[in-house]
What we know:
Layout lengths: L1 E4 L4 H10 L4 E4 L16 H16 L6 E10 L20 H14 L4 E14 L2 E14 L14 E3 L11 H7 L1 H20 L1
Parallel strand pairs: 1-2, 1-3
Antiparallel strand pairs: 3-4, 4-5, 5-6
Helix pairs in contact: 4-5
Amino acid sequence: MKLVLATANRGKIREIRERFEGFDVVPFSDLVDLGDIVEDGTTFAQNAMIKARTVFDALNDPDAIVLSDDSGISVDALGGAPGIYSARYAGKGAGDRENLDKLVRALQEKGLHESRAFYTAAIGIVVREGEYTMHGWMHGRVVDTPRGDGGFGYDPVFIPDGFDRTLGELDPAIKQEISHRSKALALARVVLHSIASHRA
Length: 200
C-alpha cells in the first residue's frame, strides 16, 4: 500500500520509511509539484493537517493515503521558542546548522549553558475515510555545546531525560525507541493498519 509523505525533509523521510516496512513510502515531491506549502497554523497539529490536506487534494486520488509530520523543539528559557518555527528559526531557507546555531546563541545571550526543553511531533493522516491526528513528546534539556553528529535538526544539543548524552551521540536505535516522532508514528501505524484492513 502506497503511503505518501507530505514532507521534503530527508531525515524525516528516512525515519518514517524505517518505521513503516510493508508500505511503499513515497515523498509527495515524487508525485506532484507543489513548491513550498504555506504552514500558517498556530499549532503543530494544525500545520501537519495543512500539509496533509494540501497534498491529498493535489493528488486527486481517492485511494491516496497521505501522512504528514510537523515537529519541533520548545525551550523553556526561550519562552517556548522556537516551537512551531523550529524548521525556520534562523529564517526562511535556513538549514539545520543555522537553526541550531541560533538556538545556542539565544541560550548564551541569556547567560545559560542549558535549559529544560521538549520535542513535539504531530502526525496528520488524510484519507477518503477522514482525517486523523496524533502526538508524541520527548522531554529533556538543551545544552549550549553541540555534541555528536548523529540525527538531524537540534539533536546535537538535546539530552533526553534519563540520559547523559545528546541525541547526536546516542545510538540511532535508542533514539528510535524514545523519540517524540516514534511515539506519534506508533499511534499512526494503528490508524494506517485499520485503514488497510477496512479497505481489504
